[in-house]
Design goal:
Layout: E1 4-8, E2 13-16, H1 23-32, E3 40-43, H2 49-60, E4 64-68, E5 71-75, E6 87-88, H3 93-103, E7 109-113, H4 124-131, E8 136-139, H5 140-143, E9 145-151, E10 159-161, H6 167-177, E11 184-187, H7 195-202, E12 207-210, E13 213-216, E14 227-229, H8 234-246, E15 251-258, H9 265-273, E16 276-285, E17 287-295, E18 303-304, H10 315-324, E19 328-331, H11 344-354, E20 358-362, E21 365-369, E22 377-379, H12 384-397, E23 399-402, H13 414-418, E24 422-424
Parallel strand pairs: 2-15, 3-14, 6-7, 10-11, 18-19, 22-23
Antiparallel strand pairs: 1-23, 1-24, 3-5, 4-5, 7-9, 8-9, 11-13, 12-13, 15-17, 16-17, 19-21, 20-21
The protein binds shikimate-3-phosphate.
């Protein structure tokens, strides 16, 4: 498996508008374009393995896809086609869960599949509420694991109170609610990323959010198409934010970033730790977009226990900043980390320990004593965010990361950008 060695190259002042396009928004663009009867035009769609899988699925469902330069035109079919093959979601929880919500009420038979990691992630959180409104979904382990077989059925309106703050669960249920036989309501315990509500409203859906309550009105007429330039992904950009924060005398400017408040919380934690962070909004299309400037500062430990769903994807990278901070940092209420692309509590704890950092593991988080990371060989556990987080640590300490192909699932040009501020072998 492909190994990456990252070595320090001194401090840096790095400006880029080449951070990978937003993954959450790209998946949604592909899937939501099926709701319209007109072509959607998507610029800056993420060309990573996961989002290309989703685009391929949309094509198998009957859409016509044309690509030119940085633009994709998705012309939806009149009616969803029953595909003759399985639908491969790759490594993507977002794709498989949103597609469950959409396909469960489409006429036909569909099999959703994924890689070995996706096939061991829980699907019951979406399948159970969908089954309770009439969806026919089956899978391994009593319907909890992919491959999942779906036979489309008319679904009933629902009132569902989710115990987890998950945008994937919320989005799946919103997609089902749009096809239901009456007005549905969904309640989440804490606001999770809200791209689905924003984009679908922009397409003409009636989705009313009042605090954590969302009502979803079924839509008979087709939706307006999407016309969007996908902003750059703050979760991918965050690796470079941590790079600036841990390398004294360094600065990074990230251009054209998505600034949705449910996505930039980790940058705010970095600021609380002592880094200098500035957000500059430049425009707003469905979402706030702008630049983020991050400058090194003296880092000290923090406690992270609130708004966890707003920084869940950034916790592995944030842990590298914890390792370089003065004092103790604590993560609590983050049990969801255990069911991501890897068990990220275990992956972070094991790897930090290999680097000589003192870490305590809890069921719902971990505690890191700041120190100096040592160069060693770490395992990515097939998880793109673990691989990239420890590659960033290499800018300070040198690091060897095994099994780095997974980086292509979300950030194909990560290595190229990293090579501008560090030495890569
Ligand atoms: C995502 C939601 C989050 C996040 C994932 C992308 C999305 O997952 O971790 O990377 O696009 O909706 P959960 O909704 O399961 O928390």
């Amino acid at each position: 498996m492909k190994k990456m060695i990252v070595l320090p190259k001194g401090n840096f002042d790095f400006t880029t508008d080449k951070i990978a396009s937003d993954k959450s928004i790209s998946h949604r663009c592909a899937i939501f374009s099926l709701l319209s009867d007109k072509p959607s035009i998507i610029e800056n769609y993420l060309g990573a393995e996961d989002t290309m899988c989703t685009l391929n699925i949309v094509e198998l469902l009957g859409a016509n896809i044309e690509k030119s330069d940085n633009k994709i035109t998705i012309t939806p079919p009149l009616n969803i086609k029953e595909p003759p093959v399985i639908l491969d979601c790759g490594n993507s929880g977002t794709a498989i869960r949103l597609l469950m919500g959409y396909l469960c009420s489409c006429k036909g038979f569909f099999v959703l599949h994924g890689d070995q990691y996706l096939c061991s992630r829980p699907m019951r959180r979406v399948a159970d509420p969908l089954r309770s409104i009439g969806a026919h979904i089956d899978g391994r382990s009593d319907g909890n694991y992919a491959p999942l077989a779906i036979r489309g059925e008319k679904v009933k309106a629902f009132h569902y109170e989710s115990k987890i703050a998950s945008a994937q669960v919320k989005s799946a249920l919103i997609l089902a609610g749009l096809q239901a036989d009456g007005i549905s309501t969904f309640v989440e315990p804490e606001l999770s990323r809200d791209h689905s509500e924003r984009m679908l409203r922009g397409m003409g859906a009636t989705i009313v959010s009042e605090g954590l309550h969302i009502s979803i009105h079924p839509q008979k007429a087709p939706f307006s198409p999407l016309h969007i330039t996908v902003p750059n992904d703050p979760s991918s950009g965050f690796f470079f934010a941590v790079a600036a924060a841990i390398c004294p005398g360094s600065r990074v400017v990230l251009k054209n970033m998505l600034l949705n408040k449910t996505r930039i919380e980790a940058y705010k934690v970095l600021a609380r730790m002592g880094a200098h962070v500035e957000f500059v909004e430049t425009h707003n299309v469905y979402e706030s977009v702008g630049d983020i400037v991050i400058q090194a500062g003296e880092l000290h430990g923090v406690c992270v226990e609130e708004n966890i769903s707003w920084l869940i994807d950034e916790l592995p990278a944030l842990s590298i900043a914890f390792a370089y901070a003065k004092g103790k940092s604590i993560v609590k209420n983050a049990e969801e980390l255990r069911v991501k692309e890897s068990d990220r509590i275990s992956s972070v704890v094991k790897n930090l320990r290999l680097c000589g950092i003192v870490v305590d593991e809890f069921k719902d988080g971990y505690e890191v004593m700041g120190g100096i990371m040592q160069r060693t060989t770490i395992n990515s556990f097939g998880d793109h965010r673990i691989a990239m987080s420890f590659a960033i640590a290499g800018l300070r300490s040198g690091m060897e990361i095994e099994d780095t192909e997974c980086i292509n699932t979300s950030f194909p040009n990560f290595r190229e950008l990293l090579s501008q501020i560090g030495t890569i072998q």
